Amino acid sequence: MKYHMRRTEREMTDPGQLRGVLQGCKYVSLALCRENEPYIVTMNYGYDEAENALYLHCAQEGLKLEFIAQNPAVCGTAIEDRGYLHGECAHAFRSVVFWGELHAVEELEEKKHAMQVMLDHLENDPDRVREEQLKTDKAYERVVILRLDMHEITGKEGR
Ligand SMILES: Cc1cc2nc3c(=O)[nH]c(=O)nc-3n(C[C@H](O)[C@H](O)[C@H](O)COP(=O)(O)OP(=O)(O)OC[C@H]3O[C@@H](n4cnc5c(N)ncnc54)[C@H](O)[C@@H]3O)c2cc1C
Fold it and tell me: pTM (2 decimals)?
């Protein structure tokens, strides 16, 4: 059952605004869980608007990959930090919370697409970075790429 937001006047429901937060942020914090053990990890991402998915990249081993292998379910947040409002006991922000599943991308063509999405999202000069660091298909073997398919997203705005 969906839990409704308490401060409904702050809720962002316009899909354009929700997309705007994901387009503008550079990293997400992802909550993972295995058995009864929680873990949170922060990662850069690229937003694939057409697929409603995030692409992320990481090293070939590590704790987060062990969590995902046991349970691909994830909840995450991206925050557009507009700064603390001194004297108002408040913080200006726009943020989203999303739920989805995280899976490793295995196929070369999707890995290339994912890297392009990430470079376009994160870099000022994506073509230069791709030419320097992803010269050959072999370069894609070294990097683990994750795809986060979002199935629900909520948004909130604070002043
Ligand atoms: C803004 C930002 C962007 C990042 N972008 C990426 C990215 O795109 N890809 C990527 O792989 N990583 C990124 N990182 C680093 C990421 O948060 C993890 O540190 C890293 O991915 C290793 O995670 P792991 O689960 O494999 O940890 P492991 O190397 O397996 O280590 C696990 C242990 O280290 C601790 N630990 C892990 N990460 C952190 C941390 N950030 N701070 C404090 N303790 C930590 C855990 O609590 C645990 O005890 C980013 C971090 C920040 C802050």
Answer: 0.95
